[in-house]
């Protein structure tokens, strides 16, 4: 199954949630996503998503000097971003319930047979 | 805000300086190729420089970690660029037009100034319009092409070469045309040179400032 399209929408929500917790930068977001099970995510997957979120004005970025090398781009959530995150979370919960209901129904039928 | 400062050029210069610090030749070439690929689409010129800045940052981090840029990105460069193209802003056409208009107005002012001191009494002839038009074409297609190729050169004199080349090429064309094709020198306007030069200078300054204001807005939008 090609997970990429399904993942993009979900990842956007997760990225917004990570940024909502505290101001952060690309590599840190990748690490947090990987720690939470999104093993396939790399900086090359994340960057276009961050660009898209910036274009939608859901996040804003500022360059800050880094002690380890070139300046880093730090992201924060905008007001629109917070609203989007809330609506994403609600939609996700509703979708989860619907998907689980369908799959559980299937399981129950299989068990009864 | 400084209306005399061009933020796009400032960012380009900053990127050129940063790119010079990339130690791994392969990473340097990878950034360069990706930026060239992105430039062939209609992404905003300022956004391309912002993406370039980010890519150079990633290449420098990859250098420190001893990785190839592609390994750090984790995806093929073309796939990465195509995702960016889908996510980016498409303003290139209007920005190219803006740059071309500003360059042409600036050139017209310089041209009229030089011409006034070489060929007095003052007239504006068809040959002037032709040279400005030719410069416009040259500036857009020839100079920008050569400039892109030389954009990675650290020597500022080398980076100025395309402009000098185009300028001397059209100066030669102008000299040849007035020598061998007389009708082209027929005057369109005969006026006081200083008035014309002043108007041209004010127009050039206004065009420069308006374009700088636009690039400043872009700089604020992308916060760099």
Summarize the helices and strands and which ones pair or pack:
The complex is a heterodimer of chains A (113) and B (224).
Chain A: H1 4-21, E1 24-25, H2 26-35, H3 43-55, E2 59-66, E3 69-77, H4 79-112
Antiparallel strand pairs in A: 1-3, 2-3
Chain B: H1 7-19, H2 25-39, H3 45-65, H4 69-73, H5 77-87, H6 92-118, E1 124-125, H7 126-150, H8 156-180, E2 187-189, H9 193-221
Antiparallel strand pairs in B: 1-2
Q: Low-confidence parts of chain B, pLDDT < 50 over ≥5 residues?
A: none
Query: C-alpha Rg of chain A, in Å?
Result: 17 Å
Shape of chain B: elongated
Helix content of chain A: 55-70%
The value of Rg of chain B in angstroms is 21 Å
What portion of the residues of chain B fall into strands of 2 or more residues? Answer: under 5%
What is the architecture of chain A at the second tier of CATH? Orthogonal Bundle
What class, by secondary structure content of chain A? Answer: alpha+beta
Structural class of chain B: mainly alpha
Number of helices of chain B: 9
Terminal CA distance of chain B reads 13 Å
The name of the CATH topology of chain A is: Arc Repressor Mutant, subunit A
Query: Helix share of residues of chain B?
Result: over 70%
Q: Would you write up a description of this structure?
A:
The complex is a heterodimer of chains A (113) and B (224). Helix content of chain A is 66%, strand content 17%. With 113 residues, chain A is α+β, with helices and mostly antiparallel strands. Chain A has a single domain, classed as Orthogonal Bundle (Arc Repressor Mutant, subunit A). Chain A has a three-stranded antiparallel beta sheet. In chain A, strand 2 and strand 3 (69-77) form a beta hairpin. In chain A, helix 1 (4-21) packs across helix 4 and helix 2 (26-35) crosses helix 3 (43-55). The longest helix of chain A has 34 residues, at 79-112. The two termini of chain A are 28 Å apart. The model of chain A has no long low-confidence stretch (mean pLDDT 88). Chain B is mainly α. Chain B has two domains: 7-87, no CATH class; 92-221, no CATH class. Chain B is 76% helix and 2% strand. Chain B contains nine helices and two strands. Chain B has helices at 7-19, 25-39, 45-65, 69-73, 77-87, 92-118, 126-150, 156-180, 193-221; strands at 124-125, 187-189. A two-stranded antiparallel ribbon of chain B has the order 1-2. In chain B, helix 2 packs antiparallel against helix 3 (45-65). The longest helix of chain B has 29 residues, at 193-221. The model of chain B has no long low-confidence stretch (mean pLDDT 81). Classes of the chains: A alpha+beta (113), B mainly alpha (224). The A-B interface holds A 27, 41-45, 47-49, 51-52, 55, 60-63, 68-73 and B 18, 51, 54, 56-58, 60-61, 64, 72-75, 79-80, 83-84, 86-89, 222-224.
């Amino acid at each position: 199954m090609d997970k990429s399209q399904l993942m993009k929408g979900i990842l956007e929500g997760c990225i917004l949630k990570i940024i909502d917790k505290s101001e952060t930068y690309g590599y840190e977001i990748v690490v947090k996503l990987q720690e939470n099970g999104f093993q396939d995510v790399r900086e090359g997957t994340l960057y276009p998503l961050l660009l898209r979120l910036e274009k939608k004005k859901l996040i804003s970025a500022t360059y800050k000097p880094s002690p380890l090398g070139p300046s880093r781009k730090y992201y924060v959530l905008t007001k629109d971003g917070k609203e989007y995150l809330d609506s994403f979370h609600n939609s996700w919960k509703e979708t989860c319930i619907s998907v689980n209901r369908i799959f559980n129904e299937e399981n129950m039928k299989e068990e009864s047979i | 805000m400084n209306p005399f400062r061009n933020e796009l050029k400032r960012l380009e210069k900053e990127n050129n300086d940063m790119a010079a610090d990339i130690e791994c030749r392969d990473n340097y070439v990878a950034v360069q190729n990706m930026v060239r690929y992105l430039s062939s689409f209609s992404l905003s010129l300022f956004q391309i420089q912002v993406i370039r800045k980010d890519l150079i940052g990633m290449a420098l981090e990859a250098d420190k970690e001893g990785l190839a840029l592609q390994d750090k990105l984790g995806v093929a460069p073309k796939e990465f660029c195509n995702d960016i193209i889908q996510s980016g802003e498409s303003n290139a056409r209007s920005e190219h037009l803006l740059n071309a208009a500003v360059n042409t107005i600036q050139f017209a002012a310089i041209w009229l100034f030089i011409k006034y001191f070489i060929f007095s009494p003052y007239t504006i002839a068809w040959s002037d319009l032709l040279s400005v038009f030719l410069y416009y074409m040259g500036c857009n297609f020839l100079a920008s092409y050569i400039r892109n190729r030389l954009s990675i050169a650290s020597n500022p004199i080398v980076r100025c070469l395309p402009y000098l080349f185009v300028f001397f090429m059209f100066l030669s064309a102008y000299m040849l045309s007035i020598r061998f094709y007389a009708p082209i020198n027929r005057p369109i306007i005969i006026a006081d040179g200083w008035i014309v030069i002043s108007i041209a200078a004010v127009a050039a300054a206004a065009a420069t400032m308006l374009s700088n204001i636009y690039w400043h807005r872009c700089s604020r939008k992308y916060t760099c």
